[in-house]
C-alpha cells in the first residue's frame, strides 16, 4: 500500500513538472520518449523512476537536490 502511494506521488510530481515546465528537461524528455515509441503513461513512469532515484540520492547523502544529476538521469532514459 505504501509503495502504491509513493508511486502515485512520483507520477503526480512528474505531471506537475510537465505542466509547469519546471524543470524544462522533464517536458523535453517526455516528448523524446514518446517520439521514440513509448506511450505517454510509460514515458511518465520512466521519468518517475529518474525522479525517484534523485530523491533517493538526496535522502541517502543528505545533500540538496542536484538538477545536473536529475538531468543526466533523464537523458539516459531510452
Summarize the structure.
With 78 residues, this protein is an all-alpha fold.
First and last CA, distance:
29 Å
Q: Count the strands? A: 0
Order of helices and strands: HHHH
Report Rg: 12 Å
Q: If helices are DSSP runs of H or I spanning 4 or more residues, what is the number of helices?
A: 4
Structural class: mainly alpha
**How much helix is in the residues?**
over 70%
- Given as residue ranges, the uncertain stretches (5+ residues, pLDDT < 50) are none
Shape call: globular
Mean pLDDT: 96
Biggest pleated-sheet summary: none
Beta-strand content: under 5%
Tell me the domain tally: 1
Protein model, in words:
The chain is an all-alpha fold. The chain has one domain (2-75). Helices cover 79% and strands 0% of the residues. The protein has four helices and no strands. Helix 1 (2-20) crosses helix 3 (40-61) and helix 3 packs antiparallel against helix 4 (67-75). The chain is globular, with a radius of gyration of 12 Å. The mean pLDDT is 96.
Amino acid at each position: 500500500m505504501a509503495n502504491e502511494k509513493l508511486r502515485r506521488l512520483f507520477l503526480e510530481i512528474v505531471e506537475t513538472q510537465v505542466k509547469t515546465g519546471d524543470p524544462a528537461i522533464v517536458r523535453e524528455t517526455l516528448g523524446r520518449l514518446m517520439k521514440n515509441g513509448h506511450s505517454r503513461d510509460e514515458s511518465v513512469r520512466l521519468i518517475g523512476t529518474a525522479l525517484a532515484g534523485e530523491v533517493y540520492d538526496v535522502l541517502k547523502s543528505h545533500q540538496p537536490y542536484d538538477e545536473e544529476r536529475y538531468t543526466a538521469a533523464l537523458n539516459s532514459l531510452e
